[in-house]
Design brief:
It is built from no helices and eleven strands. Strands 2, 4, 5, 6, 9, 10 and 11 form a seven-stranded mixed sheet that branches. The chain starts with a strand and ends with a strand. The mean pLDDT is 94.
């Protein structure tokens, strides 16, 4: 049974940092894509970043690429989203998502339809 559990959200002041974790289990870490999405109140869920096993590449959306970094720890079956220089507009619920049998490329990174499994989300609030 596939499980995705996000953690690490919270309240942070503008300019601060948070590291989100996505602990993933129940699948074989062979050919997968794991992505981070976020959804602010009243807005659609948008892709933020992803990591792909096929080429080991990482992708970060242009509007956060200078501040967010995605990484994975194979020993812990966990993918991280490091978020620095946070702004009020980064306030959202952050979700990790997975396709455990991914044969595509980075073009699918920010498409919600690519992903089969979703975590419950973790709230990030950036406010002074």
């Amino acid at each position: 049974q596939v499980q995705l559990v996000e953690s690490g959200g919270g309240l942070v002041q503008p300019g601060g940092s948070l590291r989100l974790s996505c602990a993933a289990s129940g699948f074989t870490w062979d050919r997968y894509i794991i992505g981070w999405f976020r959804q602010a109140p009243g807005k659609e869920r948008e892709g933020v970043s992803c990591i792909i096993s096929t080429d080991g590449m990482t992708y970060v959306a242009d509007h956060v690429k200078d501040r967010f970094t995605i990484s994975r720890d194979k020993t812990k079956n966990t993918v991280y989203l490091q978020m620095d220089s946070l702004k009020a507009e980064d306030t959202a619920v952050y979700y990790c998502a997975l396709d455990p049998n991914f044969w595509g490329s980075g073009y699918g990174c920010f498409s919600r339809g690519v992903y089969d499994y979703w975590g419950q989300g973790t709230q990030v609030t950036v406010s002074s």
